[in-house]
Amino acid sequence: MEKAYDIVVFGDTCVDLILHDEDIAPQFGQVEKTVAGYSLEMGGSCCIFAAQAAKLGLKARLLGKVGDDAFGQMIIDALDDAGVDTEAVFVEPGLKTGATVHLVQADDRAMLTYPGSLAALTLDDIADEILASARHLHYGSLFLQTGLLPHWVEILKRAKRLGCTVSLDTNWDPHGVWDGGFISALDYVDALLPNEQEALHLSGQVDLAAAAAFLQARVAILVVKQGAAGASIWHQGESRRESVVSAPSGGDGIGAGDSFDAGFLAGWLNGLPLETCLEIACRCGRAVAGRAGGLRGQLWKSQVPELEAY
Ligand SMILES: Nc1ncnc2c1ncn2[C@@H]1O[C@H](COP(=O)(O)OP(=O)(O)OP(=O)(O)O)[C@@H](O)[C@H]1O
Ligand SMILES: [Mg+2]
């Protein structure tokens, strides 16, 4: 049966207030410092992912909640502008939209997050209709979406039963536990998309070769993101490394991995060869890595010749 959407994602809705300076460290004792600049953007790994997926021509749907506040409206507007279907983004009175303050200096940053709406989805929100409406479920921000975390393996299982393929980008575990039933969930994952450090933590291995061996035995497609060193893929016992030219300076590292994921899946859901999917992914990641915030550098379908035919 034809599905209405290519991809559905659960939104870790939040905004990013990004402050940057050569010396961004705050000074307590009521000391006021000025900073070189700031930007205010839609944040949230899954929201940035959905925006990139839609810009690349996928029919993307985001399920999420926002507060009845200016930041919530900003997120809905940013998703709309990218072409994401926001019909299932609900404004919930009494809820505060999540917000992260990023303090950026040189190639490092510190983050302070108020989760609010970011973690507000619960099992009751994941109706069968939502899962069945799309060809693919991309599950992200596993450890931050705490309202779903106790049930996420069950949700992936349901998604598979309802005819979805599934990708997973856990992102970082701020509590350092790295479990949540991860290994058992891999039975329901078609493509696993961690960065290198995450791959080590998730597999419990000490180097990338061992982590890749452990993970590729359990998942059909493993893609590991390696920042300015590019990315690697493992599939059916074969591996391939894609290197990248360093992104121009001026970026802050926010959202490169999420746009990479969307680039990879845009290729994969259009049936392109895996090496082409990896190339598109790296281009999308690099484009975002060179700009401030997670949205500005994102590529549109017209900028990715391999996707133009679809
Ligand atoms: N400085 C850079 N220069 C060129 N390409 C980059 C750079 N940083 C990231 N990329 C591209 O983007 C991809 C994803 O970036 P990264 O490895 O930082 O993901 P991540 O750690 O998951 O990021 P995120 O913080 O968004 O979760 C890389 O595999 C690479 O292709
Ligand atoms: Mg990431």
Report a brief summary of the structure.
The protein has helices spanning 45-55, 70-82, 128-132, 152-161, 182-185, 196-203, 208-216, 256-269, 274-289, and strands at 5-10, 14-20, 37-42, 60-67, 89-92, 98-105, 108-114, 134-140, 165-169, 191-192, 221-225, 231-235, 238-242. With 310 residues, it is of the alpha/beta class. The model has no long low-confidence stretch (mean pLDDT 96).
Integer-rounded radius of gyration: 18 Å
Q: Please, how many helices?
A: 9
Find the structural class using helix and strand composition: alpha/beta
CATH domain class name of the domain at 44-70 and 118-297? Alpha Beta
Question: What separation lies between the terminal Cα atoms?
Answer: 19 Å
| Ligands and ions found | adenosine-5'-triphosphate, magnesium ion
In what range is the share of β-strand residues?
A: 15-25%
Q: Give the CA-based shape.
A: globular
Low-confidence stretches: none
Structure description:
By secondary structure, this protein is α/β, with parallel strands linked by helices. The protein has a domain at 44-70 and 118-297: UDP-N-acetylmuramoyl-L-alanine:D-glutamate ligase (3-Layer(aba) Sandwich), CATH 3.40.1190. 29% of the residues lie in helices and 24% in strands. It contains nine helices and 13 strands. It has helices at 45-55, 70-82, 128-132, 152-161, 182-185, 196-203, 208-216, 256-269, 274-289; strands at residues 5-10, 14-20, 37-42, 60-67, 89-92, 98-105, 108-114, 134-140, 165-169, 191-192, 221-225, 231-235, 238-242. The strands form two sheets. A nine-stranded mixed beta sheet has the order 5-4-1-8-9-10-11-12-13, sandwiched between helices. Strands 3-2-6-7 form a four-stranded mixed beta sheet, with helices on one face. Helix 8 packs antiparallel against helix 9. It is globular. The relative contact order is 0.15. Adenosine-5'-triphosphate (ATP) binds at residues 171, 195, 225-228, 230-231, 244, 246-247, 253, 255-258, 260, 282, 285-286, 289. Magnesium ion binds next to loops.
